[in-house]
Amino acid sequence: MAAVVDEVVQGTVPELYYQPSPESVKKLDPLEGGVDKDRSDDRKRVPRKKQSAVNERKKSYQDLMLRKREQNKRAAMRYRQRKKAKAFEMFMEEKTLVNKNKRLQQKVRDIQTEIRALKVLMRVLSINKTS
Question: Where is the sequence biased in composition, kind Basic and acidic residues (predicted)?
Answer without folding.
Answer: 24-44
